[in-house]
Amino acid sequence: MTRLPVWADVVLVPLLSLVLALLISALVILAIGADPVEAMRTMLQGAVGSAYGWGYTLYYATSFIFTGLAVTVAFHAGQFNIGGEGQAQIGGLGVAIVCLSLPWPHWTLALPAAMLGAALFGAAWAAIPAYLQARRGSHIVITTIMFNYIAASLLVYLLVNVFRPPGTMDPATARFPAGAGLPTLHDLPLVGRLFSPSVPANITLLLAILACWLVWLLLWRTRLGYEIRAFGKSEAAAVYAGISPFRIIMLSMLISGALAGLMAINNVMGESERLVLNSAEGAGFIGIAVALMGRNHPVGVFLAALLFGILYQGGAEIGLWTSIPIELRTVVQALVILFTGALDNAMRMLVGWGFRTFGRRPAAGAA
Predict the structure, then answer these.
(1) Residue 222 CB-density burial (10 A; 0-12 exposed, 13-18 middle, 19+ buried)
(2) Quick one: DSSP state of residue 364?
(3) Which domain holds residue 152?
């Protein structure tokens, strides 16, 4: 198979996958008797055409960055972590316990403690499937999927029987202290005027950007990151070089679970200011698509998270202002996953054929 130039692999292939997904989505819209041009206009206007829409897009993208990075770290170690949803929900439990434990005087004190709680709880939830994989040979995909359901059931029990305030019917914790509330992007100096005061986008976005840099630093600038990538490329070669499979599986999954758990800072501490059922809102599963489309690189994850934030917010606007059902955004997301995941090799072959036929012949070699 033709080896593609880096720019084609990183930019062109995902872009073509997105274009094909949108074209097929347009055909679906036509099939239900709606106007795809109007749908696209409504989506873009609702997602990036106003301070309100842009704020919600960045709010969703923040969650997707964390879960996309979680998948990325595990993937480079050869582990397919499907448990980001459950790890994010358990991370929310850690945030709630920390925020409700003290009358926090200011968010600058509450935030580091909540981050520690979210990371520890998320990592702990990922540690069990990691141990089963490393010591018992249990498949990481199966165990992490099952732990999503266990996490959901555990939270139902805890929110109904343990954390629910007396006299209330809502399965949720009490409101966090006022000092634990995070400032929104509207509250920030200089850039605050770009965002509506009613949107939930908050300073967790800055933490997500920092996490992208730290993950890049870990994977490509540290010895541990080299060992993780070497193990993911060839377990046999890594073992021959003296790298411990148990250590790499455990560490990569602990880091992955911690990143997924940190997502809870955005929605549990920043938006809801309490822990509610289904706090992850599906972001753990969307993170898989974000990592695939972002080529499991922090920069790609950031850009893909912005795209899925646009799809998520724009899809809600389509459902609100047109006759097209809101579930269309799920169709678009599924098509993006299809083309960037299952049909990725086919798209690469198509692009490689285009280079051979219409352009300069790229360097030949194994893909």
Answers:
(1) exposed
(2) B
(3) 60-303
Residue 315 falls inside a structural domain? no
Q: How far is CA 252 from the centre of its chain?
A: 16
Give pLDDT tens digits along the chain (367 positions). 567 777 777 778 888 888 888 899 889 889 888 888 888 899 899 999 988 999 999 999 999 999 999 999 999 999 999 999 999 999 999 999 999 999 999 999 999 999 999 999 999 999 999 999 999 999 999 999 999 999 999 999 999 999 999 988 999 999 999 999 999 999 988 888 888 888 899 999 999 999 999 999 999 999 999 999 999 999 999 999 999 999 999 999 999 999 999 999 999 999 999 999 988 988 999 999 899 888 899 999 999 999 999 988 988 888 888 888 877 777 877 887 787 777 777 888 888 888 888 765 545 544 4
Contact 39, 332 (CB under 8 A): no
Task: Give the pair of three-digit tokens for residue 143.
Answer: 């165990």
Show the tokens assigned to 146: 């099952």
What distance in Å separates the CA atoms of residue 151 and residue 167, rounded to the nearest whole number?
25
Whole-number Å distance between alpha carbons of 221 and 209? 18
Instruction: Evaluate whether residue 294 is within a structural domain.
Output: yes
State the amino acid at position 346 in one-letter form.
A
45 to 38, 48, 122, 317, 324: CA distances (angstroms): 10, 6, 36, 9, 16
In a domain, 171, yes or no: yes
Asked if the structure places residue 240 within a domain, the reply is yes
Strand boundaries in the chain, DSSP class E: none
Number of domains the chain is built from = 1
